[in-house]
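Notes for week 9. Today we move from apo structures to complexes. The key idea is that a small molecule is not decoration. When we ask for a structure prediction with NAP present, the ligand SMILES becomes part of the input, just like the chain. The input block below holds both the sequence and the ligand string. Read it once before you look at the output, and try to guess where the molecule might sit.
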Amino acid sequence: MSLRVLLVGATGAVGRAVLTQALADPRVAQVVALTRRPLAAATKLTNVVVDFDNLPADATWWKVDAVVCTLGTTRRAAGSNEKFAAVDRDLPLRIARLARAAGATRFALNSSLGADAASGNFYLRTKGEAEDAIRQLGYPGYTIVRPSLIDADRVESRPGEGLALIVARALNPLIPRRWKAVKPGAIARALREAALAPAPVSRVIESAELHATSAAG
Ligand SMILES: NC(=O)c1ccc[n+]([C@@H]2O[C@H](COP(=O)([O-])OP(=O)(O)OC[C@H]3O[C@@H](n4cnc5c(N)ncnc54)[C@H](OP(=O)(O)O)[C@@H]3O)[C@@H](O)[C@H]2O)c1
């Protein structure tokens, strides 16, 4: 098997882990990473710096087997609910549509614990809407990974998340698996395996399932 994988979000905590794992994976022939800023060069990596507001529909690099999407922002960074939804829902959908039109058969989405289009919580509703909209595109293999709090060291200040992580790390053995913070490497592994499965499969992977493989973080 020799697959071409499109990765969006490669500069983020989970995306960096996906990139490292995918480049080391013998099943992967090429990783096409769409980013806003250049990545360090690597064997098998095609890095395309793009304007995500003006993605070219006819670019040849859409022709991949699988897409892994780890895009996301925060409402604080985005500045408004609408701008948050534009990154966490509308952009993944646009990318999914363009890659599907070019022949991609597998899509692996980094979503969130509790994602639900019917939720009263704006964040969870937006994540659920993204999941549902991409499902409508008819990918033969569509895997959604729903992590709890992501246990990553960040340069960017995220006060609420930082406090939650301190608590999560201190109380880790006492927290039920469903809510335990999860390492980027474990999320990346689930996304990568979904994207590279010998035959396309569709499933939702809840956060508790990620802990069986989280040790390598
Ligand atoms: N934080 C948590 O505890 C948590 C929990 C559950 C689920 N999640 C979800 O998990 C996913 C991945 O999380 P993460 O921690 O890896 O995220 P992250 O470290 O913040 O990385 C986000 C990625 O999205 C890109 N991005 C952000 N805004 C963009 C824009 N306007 N246009 C293009 N690219 C943009 C970033 O690119 P730049 O480097 O160019 O900014 C980066 O590559 C997100 O969808 C998040 O909502 C997070």
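The helical segments are 13-23, 75-78, 81-101, 122-135, 159-170, 184-196, 207-210.
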